[in-house]
Amino acid sequence: MTITFIGHGYVGLVTACVFADFGNKVYVVGHTPEKIERLKKGDPIIYEPGLKELLEKNIKAKRLMFTLNLKNAVAESEIVFIAVGTPPKENGEADLSMVLSVAENIAKSLKNDFTVVSCKSTVPVGTNKQIEAILLKNKPDKLKIAVASCPEFLREGTAIYDTMNADRVVIGSTSKRAIDLLVKLHEPVCGKKIVTDLASAELIKYTSNSMLAVKISFANLISFYCEKSGADVETVLNATGLDKRIGRIFMDPGLGYGGSCFPKDVRALISVGKNLGNDTSYLEAVEKVNVLARENFIKKIRQHNISDKKVAVWGLSFKPNTDDIRFAPSISIVEQLLKDGFKINAYDPVAADNFKKLFPPGNISYVDSPYDAVNNVSALLILTEWNEFKQIDLKKVKSLMKKPVIFDGRNIYTPEIIKKLGFRYFSTGRQPI
Ligand code: NAD
Question: Which residue has a Cα nearest atom 34 of ligand 1?
């Protein structure tokens, strides 16, 4: 099949590479010449494990083409995927301007008798109808189109695996021809195919992300109870999670959810709920707990009175195995620390360059190893649970620090072990040591 992806971000680029790897001819359309040139040379632009290899392999096989020319790519394609960003507006609504303007450009570029236009971007319920109206208004009369909603569920950090082994593939459309084409394209993808209507497909995506945010906020809410009552959050959640109706997965207390999806998608679902006249207080509470999780962490640091205000930060990305810092907890925490007059040594395996764009070097020194970060500081703050922090030589860490104090925002260490090593240890939902 010949297909096109508009947008080469975490979703567009990964899915394009995977579909090219399945043997399809795939065009990827961007709008920044410098990025398209880098992609053509096999530079993935973003950090995603395994992506560079997949990119190089499929460029070499001449199945994966990068271009600025939307017109030619669309004209040749049976399916066109929209995979551009849908960032939040000030009021929480999803900003659909990129999606809708791309839809208009697609309509004006159509050449095939029949083309499927499928939105992979996360969009509020009703958006695909808007896309359909734009396509119908702007396309040449004699050509036929069908709209389909194919929301994406990949996780950054395991995006290639997730795309090839999806928990489910959701295809929303009223066109049998479009559904048949999309089912055929997704044949090599493991995972149940759910064929449904446009509105349900759109809402499945928001329901999934909001449910995951609910689980994280609920774990954080319980951690507040634990800290004040003397209970241990890990024991409480481990035991609770053994109930098969509940499960333990994604119930991790810490600094709350971040990234380019959960924060914006919860806000967008609130906004959609308001437009539909629903009560949105439940989701607003989820957001509130997410903010409280970070404030609780900052409060512990302030209460400790770090006199020289020199700290190390380990982890800047919103989660491990990605360089994505969008809405990462590190942003609000570092912002607060800088306001409080702290000097920070920051280390992240891959996200430091992105973080520097927000916080240029100055009161933050970006260093090349976790050991360099802890050199002569009075506290270590763990903000992302990268594997390399989990089995680090803590004796060496202690020997380098001015004072052996750890604020662990991700509960990556066992308190008993940390205690034996002689650290003071403040984690989440567990008693301080
Ligand atoms: P991103 O910001 O990384 O990428 C968006 C891409 O769109 C960029 O490459 C940008 O240059 C490109 N773009 C914007 N306007 C364009 C235009 N006119 N022509 C060509 N390219 C254009 O975003 P992302 O993380 O890939 O997310 C894309 C969508 O998928 C969002 O709606 C997001 O909510 C959703 N999503 C993201 C993830 C994730 O983990 N990142 C997972 C599932 C769904």
Answer: 122
List own/partner pairs for 371-374 with CB under 8 A and 24 or more apart. Answer: 371/396, 371/397, 371/400, 372/345, 372/347, 373/312, 373/313, 373/314, 373/345, 373/346, 373/347, 374/312, 374/345, 374/400, 374/401
| Phi, psi angles (nearest 5°) of residue 254 | 165, -125
User: What's the gap in Å between 9 CA and the centre of ligand 1?
Assistant: 5
Cα(416) to centroid(ligand 1), Å: 43
Ligand 1 site, residue 6, Cβ cutoff 6 A: yes
Measured at the CA of 124, the angle between CA 123 and CA 125, to 5 degrees, comes to: 120
98 in ligand 1 pocket by Cβ < 6 Å?
yes
Ligand 1 close to Cβ of residue 234 (< 6 A):
no
Cβ–ligand 1 distance for 31 under 6 Å, the answer yes
In 3D space, the residue among 401, 332, 334 whose CA is nearest the CA of residue 365 turns out to be 334
d(CA 30, CA 68): 5
pLDDT digit string, tens, across residues 228-273: 999 999 999 999 999 999 999 999 999 999 999 999 999 999 999 9
Q: Confirm whether 261 is a catalytic residue.
A: yes
What pLDDT is attached to residue 172? 98
Q: Report the candidate in 56, 75, 76 with the shortest Cα–Cα distance to residue 64.
A: 56
For the chain, what are the domain ranges?
Answer: 2-196
Phi, psi (rounded to 5 degrees) for 423: -85, 155
* Token pair belonging to 261: 């999806």
∠ CA 233-235-236, nearest 5°, is 60
What percentage of the chain exceeds 70 in pLDDT? Answer: 100
**β pairing state of 64-67 and 79-82:** unpaired
3-state secondary structure 324-383: CCCCCHHHHHHHHHHHCCCEEEEECCCCHHHHHHHCCCCCEEECCCHHHHHCCCCEEEEC
Please work out whether the CB of residue 104 comes within 6 Å of at least one atom of ligand 1: no
Q: Cα of 8 to ligand 1 centre, how many Å?
A: 7
CATH superfamily, domain 2-196, is: NAD(P)-binding Rossmann-like Domain (3.40.50.720)
- Mean pLDDT, to the nearest integer, of 138-145? 97
Measured in Å, residue 120 CA sits from the centre of ligand 1 at 9
Give residue for tokens 């003397």. 230
The 3-state DSSP class for residue 230 equals: coil
- Check: pTM over 0.85? Answer yes or no: yes
Residue type, 215: K
Instruction: Give the residue whose CA is nearest to atom 18 of ligand 1.
Output: 102
